[in-house]
C-alpha cells in the first residue's frame, strides 16, 4: 500500500513518525474518514469543513487548502486502485522534540498522515439487510465530542464490550439519554418522524447525519432533534445509525429487546437507499 506522510507518497513500510509526536504521546490530533464508492469520494466537502473546524477548536493551523486535501485524497485512491473503501486522514500537532503538556509553538509543522483501506462491496453490506444489534454502555468520554480527535480508547472499549456480548455496536448513555454510537450517530423512528439528539459538544456532528436529515426533510419526513432514552428506543417503530463508513445502518435490537418486529425497518431502508443514490 502507498501511504501519505508529510508531503511524500511512500510504501507503508517506509513511513516514519517520531516517537515524540504529540499524536502518539497525547492523542493530540484530529482525523477524518471519507468513504470511496466506485472510485468517488463521498461527501468530501463536508469532511473538509469539519476537519477545518476540529483544527480551529484545538488551535492548530490547517496545513492544506480544501483543493490540496482533495488532490492528496485522489492521488492515494488512484495509486492504491481503490474502487470501494475509505481514505483515513490524520493531522497531529507534530513533534516538539520533548514531552510537555503545554502546546508547542504555533508554527511547529503538524504531522499529516493519510492512508486507504479497500472494502470491496462496501455499499452492499449484508448487515444492511439484517440490521445491527446494540447494547447500551455508560458514556464516560470527555466533554468535547464535537471535535474529531484521535483519542478513541473508550469507543474501542465499548466496541469490545459489544463484541463480547455478541452484538454489533454499543450506544453510549449519559444522564439517562443516548448520546451516539461508538463511531456513529443514533436515531429512532416513530411513525413518519425521525428522532435524533441535537448537535452540541456532547456528540460528533456527523457529516452523514447532516446529509440524511436533509434528505429526510426533502422526502417529507418529520425530523425532531431531541434526546431519547434506551426505553424509548426499545418501544420505537425503528432505529438506525449513520456514519461515513456504514452510511445508514438499521438497528433491530437494543439491550436484548427487539425494536418494532425485530426486522429492518421501512424508513431506515428508504433513507439508506436515498443516501446512497444521492451521494454516489
Ligand atoms: N466515525 N459519532 C462518532 C463518535 C463517530 O466516530 C462518527 C464517525 C460519527 C459519524 O460521523 P460521520 O457521519 O461524519 O462519519 C458519529 C468514523 C466513521 C470513524 O471513526 O471511523
From TrEMBL:
Cofactor requirement: pyridoxal 5'-phosphate
Keyword Transferase: yes
Enzyme's top EC category: transferase
GO molecular function: branched-chain-amino-acid transaminase activity
CDD domains named among the record's database cross-references: D-AAT_like
Signal sequence extent: none
Keywords: Amino-acid biosynthesis, Aminotransferase, Branched-chain amino acid biosynthesis, Pyridoxal phosphate, Transferase
Pfam families reported for this sequence: Aminotran_4 (PF01063)
Pathway per the UniProt entry: Amino-acid biosynthesis; L-valine biosynthesis; L-valine from pyruvate: step 4/4; Amino-acid biosynthesis; L-leucine biosynthesis; L-leucine from 3-methyl-2-oxobutanoate: step 4/4; Amino-acid biosynthesis; L-isoleucine biosynthesis; L-isoleucine from 2-oxobutanoate: step 4/4
Reaction(s) the record says it catalyses: L-valine + 2-oxoglutarate = 3-methyl-2-oxobutanoate + L-glutamate; L-leucine + 2-oxoglutarate = 4-methyl-2-oxopentanoate + L-glutamate; L-isoleucine + 2-oxoglutarate = (S)-3-methyl-2-oxopentanoate + L-glutamate
The enzyme's E.C. designation: 2.6.1.42
GO biological process, one term: amino acid biosynthetic process
Coiled coil ranges: none
Keyword S-adenosyl-L-methionine tagged: no
GO terms under cellular component: cytosol
Function: Acts on leucine, isoleucine and valine.
NCBIfam families, alphabetized: PRK06680.1
Name the record gives this protein: Probable branched-chain-amino-acid aminotransferase
